[in-house]
User: What shape does this take?
Amino acid sequence: MNIKAQVGLLVPYLLFLLLGAFFSLTFTQNQISLAINSNHQPIFDFLNKYGTYLGDGFFIIVLALILFLFDKKLAVTILLSYLISSALVQTLKHTVFSDFHRPMHYLSQISGIHLVEGVEMNYHNSFPSGHTTAAFSFFIVFALYFKEQWLKSMFVLIAIFVAITRIYLLQHFLIDTLAGSIVGSTFAFLFYYLIFIKDFKFPFKKYANS
Assistant: This one.
């Protein structure tokens, strides 16, 4: 895989990781969550409330099934990337990191926090962020698939936007989204490499475009 051909993907994603690491080392996760949540406006509520569904499993599976009609190889790559990464994250959330709680577990008693109407709040199983994992497993595949650099950057920025919605809505900490992005993008790279670059012979190969 040509690294230079992925500049539009790598630059915004690495900046996200570096900035995320910087803020995580400089401030507490609670401080970061409150800072993002405090900058609320009606338009931000709307964008975050509905934008977070871009990392919803139902949305990804339905879109992948639709894509199956046009590009079977791309659809299979998306489904494998999403299903495997999400299965791993859900296992980690409920076993290894079961005692990692969500922002509302710690911040619910703080006055002035902003809750978006209609968003069901969760309190446990915070790490890693499932929505962020799903978004990166999905949009990074698209970023790899398209050749235009501006499209690569756009898809990465959409995935980052989903990560930010999770913090704005007080559903996850920044560190949860960083971890989720790494898991999701890792499997996106893995299955794109296996299917598009190595042309790996999966058992369902006959259903995919060559």
In short: The radius of gyration is 17 Å. The mean pLDDT is 94.
